[in-house]
């Protein structure tokens, strides 16, 4: 165990920094591939929830409310003036180090179910593994309570655009755009092809959820840099949704793998129900080539 707030992992000419006090979130990530280093994640002033783990739900929960097994629950409203809850609460929990190796680190947090708006205990274990040119993330969530646990998960990284949004493009294939009203899903989705062959990030204005059409496989998005390098953001078969967000200043782009739709605790689209004692494993990561 350790009481340090920030931890740094260095391996294969690469560096990873994480913040234990902020849900084990990544604060810096540099990858090395084809003889070059690239700063992939770094802090941005004014950017909220950078690289946060989003649990027990990602994205928005309408009015902060949901019902489960006949009981109503009310999360605090924190959606920047909108009447919603945003991104759950694991992002604000402290993590502890279980194991550290030269190229990997495993963290853990334990929640006892003490919040009245989410009385479902769980344990979360998170492993960051620096491989050559890649960060691989393995997550395990265990229901440590006596009742069924309803949940969804997401990751909220902002990827640094060193060369600028006017010369860097994003590619995303085989998706449908989730229809929304006031950023909440309408229940409709339409095929989306604009990013099939890549599009300059400068030309986009996105705060948009997409669903992959290919289920049961690894999916993802690709950032293409002007020097012909590519960063692939991949997510396993447990994560059929992804949110793209382009901040106004375009210093970065958020590519957020998610296991479920917006407001999943209400609409059940992708909602995971974990029985007492059951565990759920999720994998995702970024690959530079």
From TrEMBL:
<dbReference type="Pfam" id="PF01263">
    <property type="entry name" value="Aldose_epim"/>
</dbReference>
<dbReference type="InterPro" id="IPR011013">
    <property type="entry name" value="Gal_mutarotase_sf_dom"/>
</dbReference>
<comment type="subunit">
    <text>Monomer.</text>
</comment>
<dbReference type="GO" id="GO:0005975">
    <property type="term" value="P:carbohydrate metabolic process"/>
</dbReference>
<dbReference type="GO" id="GO:0016853">
    <property type="term" value="F:isomerase activity"/>
</dbReference>
<keyword id="KW-0106">Calcium</keyword>
<protein>
    <recommendedName>
        <fullName>Aldose epimerase</fullName>
    </recommendedName>
</protein>
<dbReference type="GO" id="GO:0030246">
    <property type="term" value="F:carbohydrate binding"/>
</dbReference>
<dbReference type="InterPro" id="IPR008183">
    <property type="entry name" value="Aldose_1/G6P_1-epimerase"/>
</dbReference>
<dbReference type="InterPro" id="IPR014718">
    <property type="entry name" value="GH-type_carb-bd"/>
</dbReference>
């Amino acid at each position: 165990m350790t009481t340090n707030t920030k931890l740094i992992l260095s391996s294969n000419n690469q560096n990873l920094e994480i913040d234990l006090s902020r849900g084990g979130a990544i604060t810096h990530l540099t990858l090395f591939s084809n003889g070059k280093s690239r700063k992939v994640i770094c802090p941005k002033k004014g950017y909220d929830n950078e690289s946060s783990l989003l649990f027990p739900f990602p994205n928005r929960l309408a009015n902060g409310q949901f019902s489960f097994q006949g009981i109503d629950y009310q999360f605090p409203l924190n959606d920047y003036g909108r009447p919603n809850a945003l991104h759950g609460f694991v992002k604000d929990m402290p993590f502890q180090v279980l194991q550290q190796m030269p190229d990997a680190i495993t963290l853990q947090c334990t929640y006892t179910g003490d919040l009245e708006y989410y009385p479902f205990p769980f344990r979360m274990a998170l492993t960051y593994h620096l491989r050559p040119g890649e960060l691989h993330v393995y997550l395990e969530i265990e229901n440590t309570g006596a009742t069924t646990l309803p949940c969804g998960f997401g990751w909220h990284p902002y990827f640094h655009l060193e060369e600028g949004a006017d010369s860097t493009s994003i590619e995303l294939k085989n998706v449908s755009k989730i229809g929304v009203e006031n950023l909440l899903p309408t229940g409709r989705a339409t095929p989306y092809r604009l990013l099939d062959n890549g599009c300059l990030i400068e030309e986009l204005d996105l705060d948009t959820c997409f669903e992959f059409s290919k289920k049961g496989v690894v999916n993802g998005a690709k950032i293409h840099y002007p020097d012909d390098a590519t960063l692939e953001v991949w997510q396993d078969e447990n994560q059929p949704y992804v949110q793209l967000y382009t901040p106004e200043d375009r210093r970065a782009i958020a590519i957020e793998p998610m296991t479920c739709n917006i407001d999943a605790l209400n609409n059940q689209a992708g909602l995971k129900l974990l029985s007492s004692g059951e565990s759920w494993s999720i994998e995702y990561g970024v690959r530079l080539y």
